[in-house]
Amino acid sequence: MAHIEYILIYEMRFIGQNMLENIDYHLRQAFPQSAHISFAGDLGQLPPVNDKPAYASNRKAKLLWEEFKIVVTLDKIFRQDGENIQQQRFCQLLTNLRDANPQIDDWKLLMMRTPTNIDVGRNSEFENAVHLFSTNDNVHSHNKKMLYSLKHSVARSLATKEGSVNVAEDCSTDELDLELLIIKNARAMLTSNLWIQEGLVNGALRYVQIIVYKPGSAPPDPPTYVMVEFDNYSGLPFKDHHPNTVLITIIQKGRKLQLPLRLAWALTIHKSQGLTLPKETIDIGRRERTELTFVVVSCVKSLEGLRIMPPFTYDCYEK
Question: In 3D, which of 138, 178, 146, 158 has the Cα closest to residue 267?
Fold first, then answer.
């Protein structure tokens, strides 16, 4: 780090009090004199997991947070860009949610996106849309239902380990699952940044094409590689007639070895942060928070890309 002059930390909403204090401690070791640090992100989204926001603590983290004196606010919305009345109304709804200022008219507008209020023909467009849930249990249940609906043989890949550590106790990363169920035509999500410049980033979505094992190997051993088609891949094609198909192999994180993939017919709302989806079906659960709804509703570019199932009450919406 000897030649680094500026440090930019993106997605500052993930920086809780413990992490900020750790960052400060280590940067003071690396730069005894000073370091130029910038944060970027949206504090209106979900707070840090298993931690308190730095600005809301009563520890050293709050003093560190207050050292950031210059604030630049970006006010141009790009994902929901558009000048028509419907789009402006949608942007205002999102702004109200982000500012924790829910309005009953906003809730009524969202309730127009429930299955009973969407044309039958339009409802069918959401059959292959990503489902977003507030809990892991609902995500796993939906993914398994979709997995078995394909009626093909399911490959079970168990993570392996390096050294004597128990792979189930290796908590150094959640990018690799202990168990991965995979099948041809499964919707999968990449869980690691493999080649950022060419679009192979954490959160990339598409479908599994081929699963390949080396001779003499079979489930639950991890496959040698899996071929996945990604929409936004822009690197050299693995197959001439399939330019978006990528060969994904086992990687290592910590001491865990596994394919960096996860079933993605359904995701948690936490995992959807930062994604832009053409269409989505959402279930915000029973314990709503306005930032949860803001995150999940803002993943689509327009209200037409949203389906809410099941509907929720205004009392739940305004919490």
Answer: 138
What does the DSSP 8-state code read for residue 62?
Answer: H
Q: What is the mean pLDDT of residues 71-86?
A: 91
Q: Are strands 266-268 and 251-253 parallel, antiparallel or unpaired?
A: unpaired
Confidence of residue 114 (pLDDT cuts 50, 70, 90): very high
Binned at pLDDT 50, 70 and 90, residue 248 comes out as: very high
Backbone angles phi, psi at 217, to 5 degrees: -110, 150
Residue 14, pLDDT above cutoff 60: yes
Q: Which residues pair with 36 in a beta bridge?
A: 6
231 within 8 A of 220, measured Cβ to Cβ: no
pLDDT score at 173: 58
The angle at the Cα of 62, spanning 58 to 64, to the nearest 5 degrees, equals: 145
Report yes or no: 186 and 210 within 8 Å, Cβ to Cβ.
Answer: no
Cβ(39)–Cβ(70) under 8 Å? no
Residue 27: closest CA among 51, 56, 6:
6
Residue located via tokens 């239902």? 145
For 64, half-sphere exposure in the C-beta direction (CA atoms, 13 angstrom radius) is 22
DSSP assignment letter at 198: G
Q: Which two tokens stand for residue 252?
A: 């290592």
Residue 68 CB partners (closer than 8 Å, separation 6+): 39
For residue 172, give the nearest of 270, 76, 254 by alpha carbon: 254
- Which contiguous run of DSSP H or E holds residue 137? helix 136-149
For the whole model, what pTM was predicted? 0.84
Mean pLDDT (whole number) for 264-276: 90
